[in-house]
Amino acid sequence: MGHVFRSEEQAAAVDGLKRYLADKIDPLFRKEYRDSGLMPRDKLREIMKELVEFGMVSGAVSEARGGMGIDFLTLTMMYEEVCACSIDLSTVTLINTFSAKMLEALAPAHIQERYLPGMVKGELFGCMAFSEPDVGSNVLEIKARARKDGDHYILSGEKCWISNGSFSDFMIVAARTSDDPRKGLSHFVLDRKEHAYEVRELHKIASNAQSTAQIFMNDIRVPAANMLGAEGAALKNTLAMFEKSRVFVAAQGLGIARRALEEAVAYAKERKQHGKVIAGHQLISAMLAEMATNVDAARLLTYRAAEMIENGIPAEMEAAMAKYFACEAAVTVARQAVQIHGGNGLTKEFLVERLAREAIIGPIPEGTTQIQQLIIGRALTGVNAF
């Protein structure tokens, strides 16, 4: 059970990050920032400046742009380690990773030069503002507007459930530049200081050390030169990004499930009931076997999608399968871990209660489980059931 490495370099990259997380980060999120509310931004920056040295975020950017240029499968393996340690930190890492990837792929040179160096150093934070209160992640229904005014656009609208919102130095936002549902969406980069969008923090059932926010744009004037990609290309570019980011969300589910299994195995080997450790009871043993099988199945689906993307193979269905299965597996495995802990699993002295709360979140972002099922069904039949 675990990683099957393709090279010594890949194994070394994952192992080095894993040891750093176990030594320095896991204790922070087990205790100090377990349910403390929003982590101070300076503390988060301190952590991110260390993480980028191992290749998180920086590995997603090419060497030509100052990054490490790590392949997507290895990045996914490394990201699983972050997820198994802290979902709060993994969410910040995910958003910065794909903000950086979008900037490198789509941004004009002056935008890349302004933000990419700070991102690969762990000094800057981005956010991606696509979801809205009435439309969720359905990009076709976005209502935020960008009205042309000379060599500027005037942006207005509300975004919701935006990860990194309170931490962000800049925002990549999708807004409607025309009424065409498919060719009327464009991306813009808004600087937090120059284009002062309003941020309102949201409190969740878990993962509150990282930011999830509402964002309000009230007639913000943005240069046309801050458009990301071509006008009207945001739908295509967002969906292309989702194919990759869903693999990272799958890795979040995988990380939670794996950590829940590890905690349950350790507890089952120590806890005694009826004269022997509970691992020696058949029902507990069977439950652990089911948990381990689900974790490995989630890993195989996630790594398959990552490897396809790395090799340039379209993976919309496979990414949806990975996200769907891994995130739902996390809910099941975390619940079973709580069950194995019994009454102790309901207390904050044990990690599994936190994992169970975090697992519930996973099936929602980047398209719910039901959306992933529709994507898979469409890929199988060619019939759109949306």
Word description of this protein:
By secondary structure, the chain is of the alpha+beta class. It has three domains: 8-124, Butyryl-Coa Dehydrogenase, subunit A, domain 1; 127-232, Butyryl-CoA Dehydrogenase, subunit A, domain 2 (Beta Barrel); 235-381, Butyryl-CoA Dehydrogenase, subunit A, domain 3, CATH 1.20.140.10. Helix content is 52%, strand content 15%. It contains ten helices and ten strands. It has helices at 8-32, 41-54, 72-85, 87-106, 109-120, 234-270, 282-310, 316-341, 352-361, 369-381; strands at 126-129, 145-149, 152-163, 170-176, 185-191, 198-201, 212-223, 227-228, 272-273, 276-277. It has a four-stranded mixed sheet, with helices on one face. Strands 2-3-7-6 form a four-stranded antiparallel sheet, with helices on one face. Strand 4 (170-176) and strand 5 (185-191) form a beta hairpin. The longest helix has 37 residues, at 234-270. It is globular and about 80 Å long. The two termini are 37 Å apart. The model has no long low-confidence stretch (mean pLDDT 96).
Key traits:
alpha+beta; Butyryl-Coa Dehydrogenase, subunit A, domain 1; Butyryl-CoA Dehydrogenase, subunit A, domain 2; four-stranded mixed sheet; four-stranded antiparallel sheet; 10 helices
